[in-house]
Each structure stands twice: as structure tokens, then as C-alpha cells.
Amino acid sequence: MTRLRFVVVVLAFLALLAGLATPAAAAGIPDIEVEAPQLVTVVDGRTTTVTVTVVNHSRTEVTGLVLHFGESTTSQVGGLAAGRSRTFRFPLSPTAALVATFEVAVTGAASDSTPVTVVRAAAGTDLAIAGIDDVTVDHGNYANVPITIRNNGTSTISNLAVVLVAEQGLQPMAGYTNCEFDRTDDFSYTAVTCRIDQAIAPGETLALPATTNPLLVKVAQDAAGPYEYAVSAAVVGVGDAAAAAESGPRLTLQPAKTPADRGGSVASFGITVSTAPAEVTVDDDTTTTGSSSTHLGSTGWFALFLSGALVFLIARRRRLA
To answer: Span of the secretion signal (predicted)?
Structure first.
């Protein structure tokens, strides 16, 4: 049943993907991208800061750009040199006028837009995941996924689910007893959902370990390049009972410093493969799989729904400068 729910959700999101991928910027053609969190949680009585970045993927400077945050707020971007970006921060409060979905757009000599969905939460619930930097990785090597989670709310959250989705060419490596893997029918995306039975108190920051039992993504030996592959991660609080204990390593969290940015509901980053693959023989049995007997409980389906949503979100990163 869990797999069926995942497949249904993914198919719904894949139907939206057509035409989102764009070719590399041609010389002299403006290519501007606006990056914003696609999911933002607003908590009653608090103001949330939304970070928006405008990126110039062109090979020349682009001038006269204007950033629109919803229908009523604008900021002058001005000129943006080739390959450069500019970051803006906007306050967002859960007022009666706040709509469920609004658009962040940049207009001028070039244009781009992205929707932002607002999730309203009662006071006390506000999990955020810090931004993750893009990396460059060679074929057959690994990238660490440095997930940092902060509880910006006022209530303790007892259990967490970390969801990671990577597109074809990348292999999430999380062979832990509290993680499950699934794929779309066409193998375009792989999702891993890890149920972590650790509490996170208000104001507390936890992170995945970087060395002992980390969460990794491997670049396949036959991954096409040069190309920037997309990965998205999210974290949700879950309230059902812990899964049955199994022997073997488990993905866990450890105390960490407060991240510089407040973070959002989703963190997306790119893994760039700079060269074409060498001719190698790939063993079909090398793909890492998690425990097939781990059950996420009554909220596991929600985490898989979220992984389907992330499939849609990472499609926006499918472009090379």
C-alpha cells in the first residue's frame, strides 16, 4: 500500500514536469533564475523570513531586473553580472490576507518565476532545514548530505522523518535499519525516507553526522556529464510509535550549532558532474537498499507523499549555466 501511494503521488507530480528543464544558456541570451523555498511554514503569532535568490546563468550581464514577492512587494535587482547572484529576504506573517500560494518572479530583460506554498501551523510547530551548498563530485565518488534541522517552534517534537529525493544518475546511500528506499517506475528518481526516533526541543538544532553513519549520495559510474544533478531534502515531525527495533546501524542526529540561515521546509542542492563517464561495466547489484521490513507507521505515507512532491521541486534545478 505504501508503494502504491508513492507511485500515485509521483505520477501526479511527473505530469507537471514537462518543459521545466531548460538547456544551457546560449551566448548573448539572458537566462535568469529565481530561487525560493517552494514550501514555507508560518506559525501563528510569529514572522517567518523567506530567502529569495536571483541567479544570472547567462554569459553576459543582465540589467533592469525587478523582483516581485507576491502581488504587492517589489525589489529592484538592477544589474547582475554573468554567473552572479543576489539574495533578498522578505518577512512573512500569518495574517488573514496571506494566501495559500503566491508567486515569486523576476521580470525585466529576462524573466522567471516560482510558486511558493504557505503551510499554516499552530503555535509551537515549526521545523526548518538549513540550506545545503552545491558540490562537484567525480564518477563513483560520494557527496555527504549535511542535513541540519532546527526547531523554531515552541513545542518539543518527538519523532522525525527525513526524506531525500535524488534524480537518476545519483544513488542515495543509507543502508540503515530505519530507512526505506523507493523509486519511480521509470527509475528517474530515488527516494529514501528515514524515521528517526529522537526528540527535538524548541530552539534546539540537530544534524546528521558527517563521518560516523552519515547520509551519502553516490554519483553512478555511468552518470552523464557534464551535468548538474538535483537533490532535495525535507524533514517532517511524525507522531506515531517507534518502528520495531532491528539489529544494525541506524541513522541518528546529534547536537549542532545553530545554522546561519533560518532555513525552510525544503533544502535543494546540486551535484555537478563535470566530465563524461568512462566506459565501465556497472553491476546491477551494486545499488544500496534499505531494510525491506522497516515500517514507518501511520504517518509513513505522508513522508512518501512529501517525497513525491520533492520530485516536482527538484525539476527546477535541471539547468546548467
So the answer is: 1-26
